[in-house]
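Schema walkthrough. Field components (list of strings):
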Amino acid sequence: MAQYLILIYENESDYAAATPEVWNEVMQAHGRFAEQITELGGKFVAGNALQPTTTATTVRGDVVTDGPFVESKEALGGYYLIEAADLDQALAIAKVCPARFGGVEVRPIMEFPAE
Amino acid sequence: MTDENGGADPDEFRGGSDGVRRRADEVRGGSDGVRRGADEVRAGADPDDVRRALNEAHRRDWACVLAATVRSAGSLDLAEECTQDAFMTALQTWPRDGIPRSPAAWLITTARRRAIDVHRRDQTLRAKLPLLVEPDEHMAESPAEVSAIGDERLRLIFTCCHPALAREAQVALTLRLLCGLTTAEIARAFLVGEPTMAARVTRAKKKIAAARIPYRVPAEQELPDRLDAVLTVLHLLFTTGHAAPTGDALVRDDLVVRAIELGRLVVRLMPDEREAIGLLALMVVTDARRATRTDAEGAVLLLAEQDRGRWDHAAIAEAHSLILSALRGGRPGRFVLQAAIAALHAEAPSYADTDWRQIVGLYDLLLAAWPSPVVAMNRAVAVSMADGPQAGLELLTEIESASSQLLGYHYLHAVRADLLRQLGRRDEAATAYRQAIELCSNSAERQFLSGRLSALRAAPDPK
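Field assembly_structure (string):
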């Protein structure tokens, strides 16, 4: 098994404008997702939602600035760390990851050879 | 991260295959199966015979040797190096020891031994772009088992054409790993610099290893999509080679030959996949017209102007029977339908005497299977032949207003120009030809369109 990070990129303004019903649906979808990971043969390791980019602070060297590292319409809004046998399984899991206002990026976690 | 593989581009091991040249006329009947018994084992062999045998083996057995070595090597990179090494070793030892009865089996054994040696010598190499191979696979050791490697080649194809790789990387890897083409050759075929192509290949191989793209034939439920990606890559190879000549014509002919060979391989390995049969038929029937697509000066000839007597009728007949078998059992897919359309053209006694009604019918099915403005446009051309230019032009106008996507496509304007010309609307036709010329990047086609434009000006007024 290998670990993959599923990064969820979505349009923040869509969330800002979302009705309570939509929020509810999103929360339920994420609740189901954890089970779907297992059903698809993977393993949930960790996952979190992030506060919107309006709360982000960027630090480069000593310089502290308000805002996200990269400004974009679709911003990183949450992630899941999963375990999967291979990329095919990770992608099958990513396909059911909720991201109604955007999409997800799948990144393999780098493994360092043991000494 | 340092690029520990950057210096290990296996092209440098290719000394032995310098003389490996592929000839376009080998395309048909190019069997990739391992032929046995033709060569006698004898002590010593003429260096020219050795070279010839190796060229043939390189052409026919490259993918087989590489695919068979992947498991022992545990990495595509190392498998590639060991395969090249085996060919080079053969070049040195066959003149002394004779040409083995089964060159493929000899090459496989040599390449595998080399892979195992490398592992023994240097354990750290295990970490070199390791490939995710499924365990518990039997290994073909004897010549009799070489045919069992078919499955391994399928894994190789599906790995090269994995959807997580960019299309251009899929194409490059397929040519590298399945055809044994050098990076320089691939770069020439796609008109990019060699460093660009080398970087593309390296990046793709690293992704396969780091993201753990599995080395396997996809599960049944994934197969339609995954096979479609493979067929799309082969079709792209074919059309790149088949496009009107820009760049090195020989390299482009070679792409056509390679695409058809790979098409045959996929059909042999997955004989029940009708779309694979359809793609092979499409490539074979299209290639049957190769000799007549341009005139002696290299200028493009229209289907209507081509000398049908010079088409390869054996190839057309082969495509016909392939299409018949692909049409059996269920709804035909896009490649089968495109092949059927191309075959109807190929079998017609003349352009005018083509069964345009049936072609329109096939386009209807194709449009349903593969809704695309380009298909809709080609259908409009067929309608213009069946029902007259006015009907075609009306359809074309509809398509243009439904999809602005096509407006940058020179062929659309060329089609409209031709329909307007037929309707005697010369000024509008001239404008459309000019738009087409402006958008067209291929010099041979641009020349053709300019010729049409001048002919339009020179022609006497209709009526």
